[in-house]
Amino acid sequence: MPRYLLFPGRHHLLTRFQADYLHRLATTGHHDTPDGDRAADDGVTVVWAVTSANHENTRRNPVPYHRREAAIERFSVLAGLRSVVVPVFDTAETDRFAEVTLKNVAAAAGLELTPANTVVACSTPQVAAMYARLGFPIAGVEADVDPTPARPWDVLLRLAADDPSWRDLAHPATLDVYARYRLDDLVRSVVNDPVVGDEGGLTATRDYRTYAEAFADAAQRKWTAVREHVRPGRIVDVGCGAGAVLELADREPALRESDLIGVEVARHLYEECVHKKAQGFFANPNVFFYRRNVLGGAVFAPRSVDTTMTFALTHEIWSYGDRMASLRRFVQAIYDHTVPGGVWINSDVCGPDGRDRTVRLRLSTTDGANPARPREDLASLPADRVAAHLAGLSTRARLDQFAVDYRFPFGFRPVDDGTGAVVELPLGAAMDFLTRKDYTDNWLSETQEEFCGLEWADWKALLADVGFEVDPASGPYRNDWIVTHRLAPTAALSTVDGTPLDWPVTHVLLVARRPVNT
């Protein structure tokens, strides 16, 4: 009879089959023996190694660890099992996963699991094989039974698909914890999320360390631009990144009685916000962070927020959602949760006026290589090789590569002037390229987003349609630092007949107020 049953897995959902199987295994010492008359208090302990314990709100790991642990403890009581629950943080893919898990159990619970005292219960062949190589006997759980019962993840997907049969398969402990903490709604929202990937980010190629550093560097400039428009009370930063702007709001004496709330969808950035709060970065005790995708529906109750701030967010909603339809839903949600007299402050990129008109763009061909054709396989390369390849291209060659990787197709025509440096294309496409051409570290992420989808007239029409009043402080503007350091050194803009054009606007500041009488 073993002393321990090691049960590794993510354990987001527990099933009735698991309860019967583990009880038989714990009370008989062998998974295929039907006799289950002995009580489970004879010293056998089920060790639940809960993997990806530091992940939540992702498609692969929708349920937070503490809720999984609660369900396991409830499950153990109802199934008559003596259990120990151990969190195992996510690790890079390794063929030593079994050893890593055993060391976690030893460190967290003081249990030395060996082939002599432990049976491993695991239905995943690749994982079971790792333990078998170490000499552990294996109990296959669902894999032991023919026909194979529904695995927990399959039951969870039934829940996400609104298939009521999931309730017949899930264990009462899961049903209870899911109902009390509304985890069924959470699972549906996360698994069916149209934007966020399996690991909780907008794109798999985004370097969030770089983004967090950029947010921190720009925070003071952003706060200075919006501070005078912030209304005290309940202040929300949607898409708050690593919380840098809220740190500055926290230092404002006039806002010391306000609630400061950050909403962030990217797991990496949300975790940094939580870490900062735990480390005492905020003096205001009423600072809160939520991990939510604003495209998934309302985040706040109607008429409950005094100030909403969004920085470099609306172009992402446009790009990763259904363009204007998604953006309008977002703006409507902001309006709905704003108190009468409250304000939405939005700072983002902006398309140039007349973005569809054709212009000529002259690009440098002497600042790098000019290969005969762009690469079609950048996505298959490691990130450092992608950056190195792009860094070696001339600005003109980067346009060719941009046209391959950009998710929003556009046409351009080389102008036969003997230099190979001039092309004709829509003004909006030209500015989309020029404002991204230097982002070599996050190229494959940046080429998934459109900066110039809306121009100033579009913004005014959208806000008026939803019901906002546009404050006179609002308007488009040109970031002259970008012009001086990024555009002018390697590019020139003209009409199709060669008349030079000044660089257009690049950004917009919107101060939109909900009328007091609405």
What topology emerges from the helices and strands here?
Blueprint: E1 4-9, H1 16-28, E2 45-51, H2 65-79, E3 83-88, H3 97-109, E4 118-121, H4 125-133, E5 138-139, H5 152-160, H6 166-169, H7 172-180, H8 183-191, H9 208-226, E6 234-238, H10 244-250, E7 259-264, H11 267-278, E8 287-291, E9 305-311, H12 314-320, H13 324-337, E10 338-349, E11 358-363, H14 383-391, H15 395-405, E12 413-414, E13 422-426, H16 427-434, H17 443-446, H18 456-466, E14 469-470, E15 475-477, H19 480-487, E16 491-494, E17 507-513
Compact overview of the structure:
The chain has 518 residues and is of the alpha/beta class.
Structure in words:
The protein has 518 residues and is of the alpha/beta class. 37% of the residues lie in helices and 17% in strands. It is built from 19 helices and 17 strands. The chain has helices at 16-28, 65-79, 97-109, 125-133, 152-160, 166-169, 172-180, 183-191, 208-226, 244-250, 267-278, 314-320, 324-337, 383-391, 395-405, 427-434, 443-446, 456-466, 480-487, and strands at 4-9, 45-51, 83-88, 118-121, 138-139, 234-238, 259-264, 287-291, 305-311, 338-349, 358-363, 413-414, 422-426, 469-470, 475-477, 491-494, 507-513. Strands 6, 7, 8, 9, 10, 14, 15 and 17 form an eight-stranded mixed beta sheet that branches. The chain has a five-stranded parallel beta sheet with strand order 3-2-1-4-5, sandwiched between helices. A four-stranded antiparallel beta sheet has the order 12-13-11-16. α1 links the parallel β1 (4-9) and β2 (45-51). α2 runs antiparallel to α7 (172-180) and α9 (208-226) runs parallel beside α10 (244-250). The protein is globular, with a radius of gyration of 28 Å.
